[in-house]
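Board notes, transcribed. Complex of a protein with nicotinamide-adenine-dinucleotide.
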Amino acid sequence: MGVPLPDQIQTAVVTGAASGFGAVVSRALHKAGFRVILSDIDEAAANPLAEELDLASETAVTAELDITKPEDFKRVLDKTVARWGSVEVLVNNAAVTQAAPVMEISPEDFNTVLTANAGGTFAGCQIFGRHFAERGYGRIINMGSLAGQNGGTATGAHYAASKGAIGTLTKIFARELAPRGVTVNTIAPGPMDTPMVHALIPEEKMPGLLSNIPVGHIGDPDFVAEMVARLAGPDAGYVTGACWDFNGGLWMR
Ligand SMILES: NC(=O)c1ccc[n+]([C@@H]2O[C@H](COP(=O)([O-])OP(=O)(O)OC[C@H]3O[C@@H](n4cnc5c(N)ncnc54)[C@H](O)[C@@H]3O)[C@@H](O)[C@H]2O)c1
């Protein structure tokens, strides 16, 4: 119970781990010595990375987890605890990213995105947070976004509002769980060099995007993933309820 022993392999569950930033952060956590549960709505898509990290399925395994289903968080938690005894880290990474003009977003679409992104993070923080609090130790890292701070540019109001909600949920869970040895932080990147950004922004519009970013380039997902791994470590216990900005100077506090 409490802070893990130095020789204990800690287990991290990552949502949306099959592709994009989820895959990058899973790699970084594995490299940092964590056992990684690569969960995704599309479990099969996570197989190649799991096999690449550990063909023996001891330190990298896949799981089916749809963030819109709280029972999926519970099942993955229970199965992981049954096999390895505990979970120490949750990275709420998966999200639905949509772009649409605000006046054209239907109430249904708004609710769908809010439910998936903010609702999924809420379920993850609550379900894993209970396990962490019982053990007196845990690390939760929530993927927010610059869009949650400045309203977004390339993404829609539903996405931006969901990311704003994730920043608020982070603070609420951080306050609730701080006395139990559990930290909760938000990562807020601007555009990173990931497939999703290239899908949203066509190549011909990239120079326009870059000219608006003070540092003149988009973000390196490996660097952001290393920060997630740092926040996931036992020595990160004094950092909670914080929002970590990676935006090339696009938005300053
Ligand atoms: N890429 C960026 O530049 C950027 C910037 C700011 C924030 N973010 C945030 O980082 C996170 C990852 O972004 P990305 O670019 O890798 O996204 P992505 O869309 O490329 O990948 C999302 C992953 O989540 C999975 N997924 C989708 N719906 C799911 C569901 N209901 N349940 C479980 N898994 C589901 C997908 O299968 C996919 O593997 C998101 O939270 C996103 O908002 C990304």
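The CA atoms of residues 99 and 149 lie 16 Å apart. The mean pLDDT is 97.
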